[in-house]
Structure formats: structure tokens, C-alpha cells
Amino acid sequence: MSWNDDVIEQFRSSKGTENYWGPKLVVLHSIGAKTGKTHLNPVVGFRRGEGWQVVASKGGAPENPAWYHNLLANPEIDIEALVDGDVATVPVTATVVPADEWTAAYDAIVSEESQFGEYLTKTDRRIPVIRLTPRAG
């Protein structure tokens, strides 16, 4: 079992309470830009109103994670997230936070999880923030 598989299994079996990121975990069901296959990607999710924001940080690597490119190609996906005390599947639309909103969005994320600030020091790229907006299922 891979690390991602283990994180996802712990998240599901504990109803979102026991995993690396606790209740902030979001499992993206991204759809491969080239393959069309569904990939499960556990990421830190930040609640924003009715939706979430996630960060394509890849730990500050010089390139964006594959799931980011998949979301650009196929923005209508499902996520698994903690909703009302249980793990729920939520249909969402993924959009990149625009440049004029990026600083405020990223600063708010760093205020919750400081390691995201450290990721900026490791790369020259603007690390994308993606908004996950619920849509009718």
C-alpha cells in the first residue's frame, strides 16, 4: 500500500479524524489530462465559505504537481472531505485563484499552516491556490 493509499484509508476509516492532516484532509478525485483515468490525491484543504482552497505546492518543488494540470484540463471533479462530522463525497468545480487575489489567499493559508510559507522560499514559481466550489451533483 502506498503512502497516499494509507492516508486515504485512515481518513475514510476514522471519519476524517486520524490522518496526517486531520480534518483538513481533502481527497481530490482528479481526472488525468492525458489518460482520463481518475487519480486520488490527498491534500490539505482550507475551508472557505461553502467550499475549499487547496495549494499546488508540491513541497516547494520547481514544478506544479500532476494533479494541478489534471484540474486545469478537467475542473469538474469530486472530492472527499469532512462535512458535518463525516467523510462525504462532494462534486466541485476547480478554479485557480486569480493573480489579484493570490496574495490574500496565500497569506491566509500560511496563517493556518506555516509550512506553506516555507514552500515559497524553495521555488521561484507562484504556487497556485485552487478554489473548490461545490456544484449540484
Automatic annotation (TrEMBL):
Pfam families referenced in this protein's UniProt entry, alphabetically: F420H2_quin_red
Per its UniProt record, what Gene3D superfamilies does this chain match? Electron Transport, Fmn-binding Protein, Chain A (2.30.110.10)
Entry-linked InterPro entries: F420H2_quin_Rdtase (IPR004378), Split_barrel_FMN-bd (IPR012349)
Please give the start and end residues of each transmembrane region. Answer: none
Catalytic activity reads:
oxidized coenzyme F420-(gamma-L-Glu)(n) + a quinol + H(+) = reduced coenzyme F420-(gamma-L-Glu)(n) + a quinone
Return the similarity comment: Belongs to the F420H(2)-dependent quinone reductase family.
Report the PANTHER family cross-referenced here: F420H(2)-DEPENDENT QUINONE REDUCTASE RV1261C
The protein's name: Nitroreductase family deazaflavin-dependent oxidoreductase
Name the source organism.
Microbacterium aoyamense
